[in-house]
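Long-time lurker. I teach an intro course on protein structure, and each term I like to show students one example going from raw sequence to a predicted 3D structure in token notation. This year I'd like something fresh instead of my usual example. Would anyone be willing to generate the tokens for the chain below so I can use it in lecture? Attribution to the forum is fine with me.
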Amino acid sequence: MRESTIDRFIVPVPQSRDVMTEILRAGAQKMLTQMIQQEVDDWLAERASLLDEQGRRQVVRNGFLPKRKITTGVGQVEVQQPRVRDRRPTDEAEPFTSKILPPYLRKTKSIEELIPWLYLKGVSTGDFSEALKALVGPECPGLSATTVTRLKAVWEEEFQEWNKRSLEGKQYVYVWADGVHFNIRLEEDRQCILVLMGATADGKKELIAVVDGFRESEQSWKGLLLDVKARGLVIDPKLAIGDGALGFWKAIKQVYPKTREQRCWVHKTANVLDKLPKRLRAEAKEKLHDIWMADTREHANQAFDLFRKTYEAKYPKAVECLTKDREVLLAFYDFPAEHWIHLRTTNPIESTFATVRLRTKRTKGCGSRVACLTMVYKLMQSASRKWRLLNGTQVLVKVLRGTIFIDGICVPQVAA
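-- Reply from a regular --
Happy to contribute to a lecture. Here you go:
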């Protein structure tokens, strides 16, 4: 009986001080060898009936291919794939291609994804060599800063294609809008990135658009909204959530006139507190919290009036900043209570931008406007894998149908 390659496999004695890494590497090598061996055996078994005139098998083993080193998360793993020979004529022969170990594979997919992850999370190209050596070992070729330069060009192409995709048939119940400014190293002006996210009828959050604008102006937001509408997003969202930037609200009234407004309480709180002395901010923040955390609109209005009476005499600017948006700050009471946590702030966008800001802080800004746009897109795309569904997804259908909600509770429909 032929001796199996697996039986002859010998786990090398660890030479490094990092014994655990050596054990993991040896285990990965053994497992990979076993899997490839089994794949070849299965291939040969399926073709065992192919015989020539003398009764000899046409598809057989024929030694081994040259050894290959694969870069993995535990360093380099050396593998050797069995060679398969098909004796049939060229027009009938079937070349064997391993699905586990494709031709020319030199790095696992996790390592390929590691490079953009490091760059996008703040590691500069100049520090790549040290970072990669620390993560996958010092003897791993093919992982250099030049790889990042090549990938950045690929990302830009991906972004351009994504930015022109069709939105035909799409419908978003809610949309979040926000703009964030970034420093551009190679240009004088700060870049404003406009981001639009949406919640679908099944509760999924999706990134709709990422464009650069001019200071969150009406024209910039209108251009974004008109573009997504031209690409197929023709149904008005039920509610839009954003900060007090007038440009967005003027633009959405023109493009999606049926969409209601909800101002972000995080932005509003920061703006109000900025107009109060530091010694009063903790107390005032609690009073603002009492407004947007009230269980009914009536209780929220009572808390509103209390804040106004408390501060209007000495700090009229703070009170004016709050009360001028009273109605649009409380719009969420006309929607399901299960959704309030999602509707009171632009947190879905803000939390993602925290990562983007980290990257630009580490690299002292982006190299160009295109690079900044692409980076924001890739980071938000990466973050989207962890976005959770909206609470109360089953209620979204009622919102789409125009069901009336009072203080977050569905009002029973009276039959005609």
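Some talking points for your students: DSSP finds 15 helices and eleven strands in the chain. Residues 172-400 form one domain.
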